[in-house]
Amino acid sequence: MTKQQANWSPYDNNGGSCVAIAGADYCVIAADTRMSTGYNILTREYSKICKLADKCVMASSGFQADVKALQKQLAARHLIYQHQHNKQMSCPAMAQLLSNTLYYKRFFPYYSFNVLGGLDNEGKGCVFTYDAVGSYEKVGYSSQGSGSTLITPFLDNQLKSPSPLLLPVQDAVTPLVEAEAIDLIKTVFASASERDIYTGDKLEIVVVNADGIRREYMELRKD
Amino acid sequence: MFRNQYDTDVTTWSPAGRLFQVEYAMEAVKQGSAAIGLRSKTHIVLGCVNKANSELSSHQKKIFKVDDHIGVAIAGLTADGRVLSRYMRNECINYSFTYESPLPVGRLVVQLADKAQVCTQRSWKRPYGVGLLVAGLDESGAHLYYNCPSGNYFEYQAFAIGSRSQAAKTYLERKFENFTDASRDDLVKDAIMAIRETLQGETLKSSVCTIAVVGVGEPFHILDQATVQQMIDAFEIVGEQEAPDAAAGQEASAEPEPEPEQGAAAGEGVAPMDI
């Protein structure tokens, strides 16, 4: 007698790509706005980016229901932190919280592939990249989602981040200025939209710097 | 005489049908430093007198933000107040997590009151020794509630609790009819005046009081000392010698404020004030 298999899955993949790049005094987080299921498009205008704290923004691709639940959890925990500490959470603190929140559901994970971007306590850009169960790393740039296999090699080529294993410890953040980084993001998404069917429609770019948080949009291929 | 026989346990009734432990808890509220609240149609202002144990220590926190639309001022055992504030914050967070909308104030005070009632009916507990003035804004408008250790709660246009609160209540009773349509700034001024009544002779400085506001388009926040000091100076109240910044020079030159006097010119003389 063969083992009984489930005839449904609690997960679905809504597709899409996310990218984040850290600079000396800014951080750019971007994601496309297409939400799909299977070979169909559910909507062309869904934001995968969420502001978690004053200087901390998260973009997540994967199963958007889990993403939404995760965002709500983090927002509630952030409120509690603010009540207790009388200040906003820093980006590195939020990074650890996100990791713990994900691992908490190690045996029924959030199907959510996250990049966290923002400014650290000194105002320098930082990007943290995660897997679905909370393993994370501070990096200079990162890409997640359906287009990541197309985007990451291109970013590797353009941003040439030194290995974190080298000594002396080198800065992972890019020497590019904000405008150049945004340009790079636009290029990268335009390319990904060409070949990845789940990436397209519109690109949402969020820039975090000393002046605050700013949002930009760019049209992408609709096919 | 009978009080001593029936006041050991909160679960013991007196022959006259009273729970003395609960009444003693309300006594604790009266011993705490004053807290006042007043509301208009669109704003609620909370104020409290800062009491410090000694010159060396900082004063206790008596006003807490519970959510963007709710804040609370306490009088009595501040530790109990802190714990209840944490409970209220939790309830607000859980409600908005589930319903994606702010917790209506009326529901929060009922939950708070039920929590207080439990402590009046368990032999292994004691009542909370703190009175709470809950100020909140929701779809049905601006609200000010008073939650008592007994588990009762009442809605007020304006109220004062804690030591020497009767002086503030007298002031508020005189003025409350104007509050509904008062502007936000007038409401804050009235709050500061009410606090001044409880000080009974002490000089009114921004270091002695704390003011917080919540209203339409204005999330709950505590006003910073400089702002409060400026408003105090505008009343031409004597005694801001210690003001650390430019506020010191403004005493005589600030514009006269006719509005607080509309009750009667003699009104200012009713509460004992040292000029």
From TrEMBL, chain A:
Q: Does the keyword Ribonucleoprotein apply?
A: no
Q: Which PROSITE patterns match?
A: PROTEASOME_BETA_1 (PS00854), PROTEASOME_BETA_2 (PS51476)
InterPro entries assigned: Ntn_hydrolases_N (IPR029055), Proteasome_bsu_CS (IPR016050), Proteasome_sua/b (IPR001353), Proteasome_suB-type (IPR023333)
GO CC entries: cytoplasm; nucleus; proteasome core complex
Q: Which GO terms are recorded in the biological process aspect for this UniProt protein?
A: proteolysis involved in protein catabolic process
Superkingdom of source: Eukaryota
Keywords assigned: Cytoplasm, Nucleus, Proteasome
Subcellular localization: Cytoplasm; Nucleus
Family affiliation = Belongs to the peptidase T1B family.
Q: What does this protein do?
A: Component of the proteasome, a multicatalytic proteinase complex which is characterized by its ability to cleave peptides with Arg, Phe, Tyr, Leu, and Glu adjacent to the leaving group at neutral or slightly basic pH. The proteasome has an ATP-dependent proteolytic activity. Non-catalytic component of the proteasome, a multicatalytic proteinase complex which is characterized by its ability to cleave peptides with Arg, Phe, Tyr, Leu, and Glu adjacent to the leaving group at neutral or slightly basic pH. The proteasome has an ATP-dependent proteolytic activity.
Q: Kindly state the subunit structure of this protein.
A: Component of the 20S core complex of the 26S proteasome. The 26S proteasome is composed of a core protease (CP), known as the 20S proteasome, capped at one or both ends by the 19S regulatory particle (RP/PA700). The 20S proteasome core is composed of 28 subunits that are arranged in four stacked rings, resulting in a barrel-shaped structure. The two end rings are each formed by seven alpha subunits, and the two central rings are each formed by seven beta subunits. The catalytic chamber with the active sites is on the inside of the barrel. Component of the proteasome complex.
Q: What is this protein called?
A: Proteasome subunit beta
Automatic annotation (TrEMBL), chain B:
User: Where does the protein end up?
Assistant: Cytoplasm; Nucleus
Q: Which residues form the Proteasome alpha-type subunits domain?
A: 6-28
Q: GO CC terms on record?
A: cytoplasm; nucleus; proteasome core complex, alpha-subunit complex
- Which domain of life does the protein's organism represent? Eukaryota
Key words, A-Z: Cytoplasm, Nucleus, Proteasome
| GO BP terms, alphabetized | ubiquitin-dependent protein catabolic process
Q: Where is the composition biased (Low complexity)?
A: 242-253, 261-275
Cytoplasm among keywords: yes
Disordered: region residues: 242-275
Tell me which InterPro entries the record gives.
Ntn_hydrolases_N, Proteasome_alpha, Proteasome_alpha-type, Proteasome_alpha1, Proteasome_asu_N, Proteasome_sua/b
Output the PANTHER family linked to this UniProt entry: PROTEASOME SUBUNIT ALPHA/BETA
Binding partners and assembly: Component of the 20S core complex of the 26S proteasome. The 26S proteasome is composed of a core protease (CP), known as the 20S proteasome, capped at one or both ends by the 19S regulatory particle (RP/PA700). The 20S proteasome core is composed of 28 subunits that are arranged in four stacked rings, resulting in a barrel-shaped structure. The two end rings are each formed by seven alpha subunits, and the two central rings are each formed by seven beta subunits. The catalytic chamber with the active sites is on the inside of the barrel. The 20S proteasome core is composed of 28 subunits that are arranged in four stacked rings, resulting in a barrel-shaped structure. The two end rings are each formed by seven alpha subunits, and the two central rings are each formed by seven beta subunits.
The similarity annotation says: Belongs to the peptidase T1A family.
Q: What does this protein do, in the record's words?
A: The proteasome is a multicatalytic proteinase complex which is characterized by its ability to cleave peptides with Arg, Phe, Tyr, Leu, and Glu adjacent to the leaving group at neutral or slightly basic pH.
Protein's name in the database: Proteasome subunit alpha type
What organism is this sequence from?
Hibiscus trionum
The organism's lineage? Answer: Eukaryota, Viridiplantae, Streptophyta, Embryophyta, Tracheophyta
